[in-house]
Write a structure and sequence with these properties.
By secondary structure, the protein is an all-alpha fold. It is built from two helices and no strands. It has a domain at 2-40. The model has no long low-confidence stretch (mean pLDDT 94).
């Protein structure tokens, strides 16, 4: 999705992310995997931002 962005725009975006990288599908998949596991069985009604710390 971000491949269509110009390099300078991508670099500026990355500068704003504390983890200094763009997210990957695997990052979201790991969160989903946790949420469907027994480890998350008591979690309800939450918003989980998978954004590398860009928004807190």
């Amino acid at each position: 999705m971000t491949q269509v962005l110009e390099k300078s725009v991508r670099e500026k975006l990355i500068e704003q992310i504390p983890l200094a990288r763009l997210g990957q599908p695997e990052d979201v998949a790991r969160c989903v995997s946790f949420l469907v596991s027994e480890n998350a069985s008591y979690i309800t009604g939450q918003v989980i931002n998978v954004n590398g710390g860009m928004l807190m």
